[in-house]
Specification:
CATH class of the largest domain in chain A: Alpha Beta
Radius of gyration of chain A: 19 Å
Number of strands of chain A: 14
Number of domains of chain A: 2
CATH topology of the largest domain in chain A: Glucose Oxidase, domain 1
Distance between the termini of chain A: 4 Å
Oligomer: homodimer
Strand content of chain A: 15-25%
CATH superfamily of the largest domain in chain A: Putative cyclase
Chain lengths: 289, 289
């Protein structure tokens, strides 16, 4: 167990800096920040990745790693209205000498990242996020007892201040995860989406006021949930998405195994997606202590 | 800089253990190890991921991280005969309130993992690989000078023994990467695949005898290249794939930035794909020192 500190903080990227960064990558800025994908697909320019200099920080040492990532695929539940992944086998070792599949899926499937660009036309896409933000102290706020009886339970400012009363201030540069115990429902996927008769989803998420507290009054790099959405199921206004992401923070949804992670003292390592102009995508995340 | 040691080694998984592990995941064993994808897609069982216990090791501390991952997409070069990725924009912030894309690609695209199952019907798929093997000492063997004049340059047993003469024995549990400098060609993708008039690819890779040396006479978790294939371009027999993968090692192809990593002293963190029954897939990899 350790309490790492990120020594060099990468400031939130202003629109001006974003455009500079995008230009430095040789990518047409407008095409990326507007998510106009067609023009990118026809543009041979963005293939070259410049050599990246290292980010400097102090991290570790560690003695344990826990996988925060679910196995996902065509049967993994998706946000109501989204399309499930489709996997097509192209070859097997027995039939073709090697085994290979064609994957088709919406970016927001499985344990996945929401990049700022997912809800902010001026926000960074996942491929452009600073990697220093992918190595962070991991704070786990546990609302599982409440979620057991209330599928619409939300992580509130009171939950944050109660956590801090026990554990001290949220460490600078933290990734803050909300644990609701929801993954126990993955054995019956329909109960994970949990639609009512009117087609409204019911599962826990971050309250908008908690998102505002974390973005405006704490120093975080991102926020996570073990459910399908940063916002709780019935949300009609996506207020938590609209607070975290335009606030320059990334999200991770459908996190696994948070119930085994200490409230304070672990760190997260985020293997985020790096396809071009990513609004997000499947992400490998580890907790290390 | 540091020389981490993985304290707990995960032994290569025998077929018997593989079937046990697969059964423990609630996945039909035959369906996975044969790569028979259709039956999985119709099977609601594999959704639930069991709570994973942590893996125990000693890793770090670190002060720098370098991204070993290329930005990839429809324009990123693919192995001759494979199909390029297709990205379709589904919504933008301006048009729909949020930005989201549909991705379609073969698993072996971009900076990506080859799981043992890619060339071994009894091998582990990427989603089942032990995560302890994703945190490893990183050895970089540099053949860039030779590759500059010979596009068919291979990493040979002599390159390995020359590396060891300078740096000492390859540390136990290492990931061994071959650096050829090939990524400079990504600005002109056709030169990265480098087909000759007969349609044969020309780029560097591991010599089969080097693969055999690493698998049989050293203790490695995996091997990497900065080109499209573990085998050099003209290979007709895929001998290096057929040595590393059935040997229980994973591969990573199209690695970035290896030229900035010391020959010895860095470690790799591998954010491998975790979709079900993965033969491999896009992978986020970091070098930490």
């Amino acid at each position: 167990m350790c309490s790492p500190e990120i020594m060099v903080r990468v400031a939130d990227v202003s629109r001006r800096n974003f455009l500079k960064q995008t230009a430095a990558l040789g990518v047409a800025a407008g095409a990326v920040h507007l998510g106009a994908f067609g023009s990118l697909a026809q543009n041979a320019t963005p293939v070259a990745t410049p050599v990246s200099g290292p980010a400097t920080f102090s991290f570790g040492p560690f003695t344990q790693v826990t996988d925060l990532t679910h196995v996902w695929g065509p049967d993994f539940p998706v946000f109501a209205g989204a399309t499930s992944a489709v996997f097509e086998n192209l070859a097997t070792v027995d039939s073709g000498g090697y085994y290979n599949n064609l994957l088709t899926y919406e970016e927001h499937t499985g344990t996945h990242m929401d990049a700022p660009a997912h809800f902010d036309a001026d926000g960074l896409t996942a491929d452009l996020l600073p990697i220093a933000n992918f190595f962070a102290p991991l704070v786990v706020i546990n609302i599982a007892a409440r979620a057991e009886t209330d599928p619409d339970a939300q992580g509130t400012p009171d939950d944050i201040t109660a956590w801090e009363a026990t554990n001290g201030p949220i460490p600078a540069g933290s990734f803050v995860a909300l644990y609701s115990g929801w993954e126990s429902r993955l054995s019956a996927p329909a109960t994970f989406v949990n639609l009512d008769d009117a087609g409204v989803q019911h599962y826990p998420g971050w309250h908008g006021e908690a998102a505002a507290l974390l973005v405006n009054e704490r120093d975080i790099v991102g926020a996570g949930v073990d459910t399908l959405s940063l916002d709780y199921g019935p949300s009609a206004d996506f207020i938590s998405h609209l607070t975290f992401l335009p606030g320059g923070k990334y999200g991770i949804e459908n996190l696994a195994n948070l119930g085994t992670i200490p409230a304070l003292g672990a760190s997260i390592i985020v293997g985020g997606p790096k396809h071009i102009a990513a609004s997000g995508g499947p992400t490998r995340a580890y907790a290390v202590t």
